[in-house]
Amino acid sequence: MKKVIISLIMMFGLISSTSFAGTLVINTDTSDAAPKEAFEYIIKKFEEENPDVTVKWNVFDHEGYKQSIRNFLNTDPPDVANWYAGNRMLPFVRAGLFEDVSDIWKDSGWVDGNLSENMEHAKKSMTIGGKQWGIPYTYYQWGVYYRKDLFTANGISVPKTWDDFVAACATLKAAGITPITIGSKYLWTTAGVFDYLNLRTNGYEFHMDLTLGKVPYTDPKVQAVFDKWDELVKPGYFLENHAALSWQEALTPMVNGEAAMYVMGNFAVAPLKEAGLRDSNLGFFQFPEITPGIPMAEEAPTDTVHIPSKAKNKTDAKRFLIFMSRADVQEEINKILGQLPINKNSSVKKGDPFLKAGLNMLNNAYAMAQFYDRDAPAQMASEGMKGFQEYMSNPDRRQKILERLEKVRQKVYK
Amino acid sequence: MELNNSKAKRITWWQKNQVKISPWIFLAPGLIFFSIYVIAPIFVSIGISFYQWDGLSPSIYVGLQNYIELLDDEYFYISLWNNLKWLIFFMLAVPIGLGLAIFLNQIVFGIRLIKSLFFFPFVISQVVIGLIFTWFYQPNYGVIAPFLNLIGLEGFSILANENTATYGIIFAGLYPQIAYCLILYLTGLNNINPEQIEAGRMDGAKGFHLFWNIVLPQLRHATFLAIVVTVIGALRSFDMVAIMTQGGPYGYSNVLAYYMFEQALSEYGYRMGYGSAIATVLFTIMMFYILFFIYRMYRNEREDNN
C-alpha cells in the first residue's frame, strides 16, 4: 500500500514538473479561429526546425486570459506568453514579471540580421525604461470602413479633409442613412474615434503626451478635439443607442445598408464579408486630415510575445522569440491572420485590398499609436473610455467629464 | 491492579468530557474550512483596503487613502444609489411570489405541471436569463420594441439609457427571484393548519380578511425567509449586471459588487486596495442587515420557547 502511494506521488511529481530541458511551454490567448491556426503553424514549423525542442502549448480563452496571465506569471510561468505592446505590458514589466530581451533587439548576429532596423517602427512601443521587453509579430491598421455603393448612390467621393467628411455625413443623414455606426457597450470603440480625432487635430506628440499623463484633460487642445467631435455627435451622425450594442452588433446596420461608415480596426473586415459584403461594396479610407500640415500618424495595435522572468527554459524561449521575428515566419503567420507583419522584409498576402491599403498607409505613417487603452495606463484608460461613451450620449456634459478625467489623471500619474 | 486503575481513570476523563467535546469534533471540519475560506478572507480583504496594490508588484501602505478617495468618487455614489434601488424594487418579488403561490395552491387537473412551469425561471442560470432579457430589450429587433413603438418610444434602448438601465436589470432579476419566493410560499401553504381556516370561516371571515388575519400570520416563517433571500440577492446582484450592461452606460447601472470587480479584477482593474475598500463598504452594509436578521431570529426563538 505504502509503495503504491509513493509511486503515485512520484508519478504526479513527474507530471507536474512540466518543463524539463527541451520542453518549451507557451501560453497564448489565441482562442479565435485564425490566431489559433497561426500559432499551430508557428509551433509546427518551430519544432521542425528545432527537433531537440518539444513545445507544450496552452490555449486560453481570449477574454479569460487577461485575468489568468496575472496568476500564471507568478505561480506557474510558461516560457513564452503572448500579450500586447505599449502601456498594456507596463504592469508586468514594473512588477518584474517580463524578461528584458534587449539583447535580441541589438545586432548580435541573430538569424535575421539587425532587428532594430527591420522593426524600427515598432521598437518604441516595445520599449520601457530604455529596454525592450518582447517581440512584436503582427499588427493591423485602423481607419474608416465604408459602403462604396451608398457613397456612390449619394454622390459622395472618399473624403480627404475634415470638411469633406462632415459634408459626407450630412448628405448621408439627409438621405436617411446613419452616417457612422458604432457599438460602445464595451467602451473601447469610442477610444478609436477619440484617438483619431486627437491624432489629426493635435498630432502624434500631443496624443502621446496626453496618454502619458503630461497634459491635463482640461487643456484647450483637448477641448479642440471635442469641438471636432461635437460636429459629429451633435447633429446625430453616430448610430443611436450605441451604448447598448457590442461592436459586432453595430456591424448589422452597415451590412443592411442602414449605416455607411465605421471607424474600426481591420478585424472588422472578416465578419463584414461573412455577412455578405464584397470588395465591390466595402471600402477603406484613411481617417481624413483635420489640422492641415500635421503629419499623419496612425493607429496600429501590435500583438507581441514575451518571456516571463520566472520561465524555466529561457534559452529555447529566446530561440522562439528570434524565430517569431523572422521575416519569412511573420509573412506566413500574417497571411493566416489576415493582418500585417512587423518585419519590413515580409511581404503581404496578395489580392486583399484592405491589407494592401493598410500596409501602404502604415509604411507612410509618421508614427504609430497603439490604441488608447494600450497607450494610457489601465485605470486612466478605463475611466477615459467611460467618459467618451458618456460624452457621445450626452455631448453637453463635456466639461464635467473632462474635469473628472483630469481628476483621475492627477491620481494615476502621481 | 494499577493498570486497571489507570484505564478506569482514562475512561472517566473521556466520559466526563465526552458530551462537551464531541460537538466540537463534529463541527471541526466545517469550522476549519469556514474560517479559512470565509472568516480569514474578510480580514485579509479589510487589510488590503489600506494598501495601494496592483496585485503584482509590492504593495504600499496608504492608510485611509482609499476610503477618502471613495468619498470623492462619483461612480461610487451611483453604485451605492443603485444598490438602494435594487433593495427597494427587488422586494416586489415577495408579494408577487405570494400572490402566485396562492393562485397556484389549488387542486385542479394538471396543477403539478403548471406549478413546475412556474418554478422554471428559478432553475435557469442567471447568466442565461440576463442574456435573454438583453435580447428582449434590443432597441430594433427585441420583443419589447413593438410595444415601445406603440407608446411613441421608437428605437428606445432600455439598457443604453442611464435612467432606465438599472430598472431594466432589476426587472430581469425579478423573474427568477419571484419563482424563488413562490416556492417558499407554496411549501409554507402546505403547512397551514386547515382547522384554523375552518374556524375562521365559521366566525364569518372571508376573502381578504381571512387571508390577512388567518393565512398570512401562519406564513410568517416563509415571509421572513423570502425577505432575507431577496435582500441578500439584491445586495449581491452581480451576475445580471455583468452580463447585461457591465455597469454601463458609463457606470450608471453599476452596483457595489460589480464596481469592486471592475476596479480590482476586470480587464483594466489593477486596484486591489481600492476594490477591497469598496468590498468593505458593501460588507458593512450587509453586516448591519445580518445583525438585524440574527437579532430577529434570536428574539423569535425566545418567543417560541416561552
Characterise the protein shown here.
The complex is a heterodimer of chains A (414) and B (306). Chain A is built from 20 helices and 13 strands. A five-stranded mixed β-sheet of chain A has the order 2-1-3-12-6, with helices on both faces. The longest helix of chain A is centred in the first third of the chain and has 17 residues. Chain A is globular. About 3% of the residues of chain A have low confidence. Chain B is 74% helix and 1% strand. Chain B contains 14 helices and two strands. Chain B has a two-stranded antiparallel sheet with strand order 1-2. In chain B, a hairpin with a 7-residue loop joins β1 and β2. In chain B, α1 crosses α14, α3 packs antiparallel against α11 and α13 runs antiparallel to α14. Chain B is flat and about 75 Å long. The interface between A and B is medium-sized, with 33 and 30 residues.
Kindly summarize this structure in a few lines.
The complex is a heterodimer of chains A (414) and B (306). Chain A is an alpha/beta fold and 414 residues long.
Name a few traits of the molecule.
heterodimer, A: 414 residues, D-Maltodextrin-Binding Protein, domain 2, four-stranded mixed β-sheet, 20 helices, B: 306 residues, mainly alpha, MetI-like fold, 2 domains, 14 helices, 74% helix
Largest interface: A-B, 33 and 30 residues
Q: Helical content of chain A, roughly?
A: 40-55%
Question: Within the CATH hierarchy, at the fold level, what is the topology of the largest domain in chain B?
Answer: MetI-like fold
Mean pLDDT of chain A: 89
Spatial separation of the terminal alpha carbons of chain A? 61 Å
Strand order of the largest sheet of chain B: 1-2
Class of secondary structure makeup of chain B = mainly alpha
The CATH superfamily of the largest domain in chain A is identified as Periplasmic binding protein-like II
Radius of gyration of chain A: 23 Å
Architecture per CATH nomenclature, i.e. the level-2 architecture of the largest domain in chain B? Orthogonal Bundle
Mean pLDDT of chain B: 88
The largest β sheet of chain A comes out as: 5 strands, mixed
Number of strands of chain A: 13
Q: So what's the overall shape of chain B?
A: flat
- Overall domain count of chain B: 2
Class computed from helices, strands and strand pairing of chain A: alpha/beta
With helices defined by DSSP (H or I, 4 residues minimum), what is the helix count of chain A? 20
Strand composition percent of chain B: under 5%
Which fold name fills CATH's third level, the topology of the largest domain in chain A? D-Maltodextrin-Binding Protein, domain 2
What global shape of chain A is seen?
Answer: globular
Helical coverage of chain B, percent range: over 70%
